[in-house]
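Figure-free illustration: sequence to structure, shown twice.
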Amino acid sequence: MSGQAIIVVIDDHESMRNSLRALLESAGFQVKDYPAAAAYLDDSAAAEGDCMVVDVRMPGISGIELQEELVRRSILLPVIVMTGHGDIALAVRAMKGGALDFLEKPFDDEVLLAAIQRALSESRRTHDLEAEAKAASQIIGLLTDREREVFQHLVLGKSNKLIAYDLGISPRTVEIHRARLQEKMHARNLSDLVRTARAAGQLH
């Protein structure tokens, strides 16, 4: 995985960027670095990347402001913020805003690499959940209105008889709709239906 991962580094100090680039490339990562948040945001390929390492305090757009802009742009990039001495309050604010970790300078190389691996694992998990949710929503979209009604009642644990009563149809009709919707959704049983509903955000 690390050979494919792109790490975005944003720091206004060239020496820091060069140091991080050397470390990350030696660890097998690809690196894209920027001297300022604005330079990153102006890049048409800004959304490309698997993890971001950003200084929390920079001239112009700060690391926190950049993080807020990423959310507005729906750029789902795990963020690790780097802080100088005395910036811990800012780091905590960044984490409340969604940053996964913060590292206080100077930090050990291994600490940064471990934080990046955690961020990449979280990124993979997020992408997997998004893909699962999209697939579940698409398959539910194949159902007719009546099949969707039956489906919604089924995943709440209601019996065919109760669903029939609630919808004003016969239990036999419920059975027919259930068989059809399970076939469309490639669901072997009720457990499969419940998993699909949960993935699509229809159960909490």
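We now fold a second protein in the same way, so the two outputs can be compared directly.
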Amino acid sequence: MRDIALVATDVDGTLTRAGKLDPGAISAITELDAAGVRVLPVSGRPAGEVLGLCRYLPGVTRGLAENGLLEIVPDAAPRWLAQPTDRARLEAIGARLNAELGAKLRRTGDAFCRIGDVAYERDGRGVEELERLKAAVTSMGAFLVWSSVHVHIAEAIPDKGVAVLQLARELGVDRLRVATIGDAPNDAGLFVSGRFGVTVGTADVTEQRASFPALPQLVTAEREAGGFIELARSILRHRV
């Protein structure tokens, strides 16, 4: 923890509590910034919403949107970090799930500011139902993953970690000085063994562990934003 220079963090379910940005998490970001530790939001949210985070979160100057598809920097055009997606094809798969499986998927309200990602409201779906839809999407030649709030259909398995590694290289930050934190299966790329110095899951990871291809080194005692605050406190304590 003493050597951490950058924290790559999921947003929904990690910086939020009950669906809202948590004041305690914002204070923790402020303290990390003051201590010289950069914070990088890595979200499944669309480019437009991540731009807002980069403008208003203290010390945050860039972020990754749509599960690592895009880099967002204020006053610059979004940059693709992966191949542009065939949204029409992915939307057709979502329509098939509704027509053939009665999935009742609803496009997200923020779809208008998504550039490449195709996402639906999770609407309280449990892991068993999501795994059923995941298997169906795999049979259709695509991939399904979910966060605490959304269900995503993608052309490749979303990997936030690959995007974080690319930005770390470009920013001159040793990957072993990067800590990652997340809460849901769309964060699995942040947990791949050997990629980063410290990988952390919030307590929410525990009940979904069977849905993760890779698990974090550490799990916080607290859920949601409480887990992020716990990680921040540990980093700051070790830097004293």
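Summary for the second example: Residues 80 and 141 are 22 Å apart (CA to CA).
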